[in-house]
Write the structure tokens for this entry.
Amino acid sequence: MILRECQIRQLGGLITTKQIIYLYDMKKVSILVPESAVLAAIADPRYMFTAVNQFLEAAGKPALFDVQLVGLSKEIRLNDGLFSIHTDRLVDEVEQTDLIFIPALSGDLKTALAINKGMIPWIVGQYKNGAEVASLCIGAFLLAATGLLKGKQCSTHWLFANEFRNMFPEVELVDGNIITEEQGIYSSGGANSYWNLLLYLVEKYTNRETAILASKFFAIDIDRSSQSAFVMFQGQKDHDDASIKMAQDYIERNFQDKISVDQLADKFVVGRRSFERRFKKATNNTVVEYIQRVKIEAAKRSFETSRKNITEVMYDVGYTDTKAFRDVFKKITGLTPIEYRNKYNKQGVGLQAG
């Protein structure tokens, strides 16, 4: 690339060829500042990438990232006007960037998308021009609104999974993932898990050594890859299929019992194949998956609040096979029953299976 004459004049006309090369080696990082954004999800990526610049300079290397806050206006007020952010550039002033961060949003998400729709053409244009795009937590909603995620995988906060699927059925939401990456588009799981995405991108743009240094400086577990242990299964009941809602309620009241698909289909007078199809469409889970999730959610609550051992909890939630219980528990939470109990219940630490 060649610097324009006007850009050289702005630099005083005193830069060398080596400095010109260095300037174009820098990665331009654009952190969007939408209306209704979460303040920390703007400040944290800025802190991370400016800190990495300082790490590099301390090691005798040039800074790598040109970090700018970008918005639709010069000043954006957040948290009902409690905080005010002054952007470095307006979106239409940024002709080219390398990495775009879309921070988490707050409040009513449909309203947030409507008031920030002016950012969408710029995001799409920059992506088509070679920029990578990363959403943090429920910033995934604004990313999905661009259409760039159609047919692709995405992560977001587990609490908003059902709402996301309803609004963007053409996107494959991946439950439990901390980080999802596909074709230069990144997304993170819920809340503070976006720090892991920030580290991931630091490593990609620099190296493992710098990412480890950043992980130690910010006290972040660099290898955390799942938010499954934090998920609280609530079922998907934002649908209009009355028979399926009754089936869900029945499962949640009788999870300790052995419940079969045939039993549920007969009870609610629906053919088995039709029942399974309608259940999957309404809840985004098969019948068996839903029953497993309800049982495991009950087991998690017991591990968190009681001193029962693994076997007792297993029987309480309707399992009789230790291996089957352990396998399903780990598949859903990412942890073994003992690991989960020891993580969330100090009183339970040291208690064994039976």
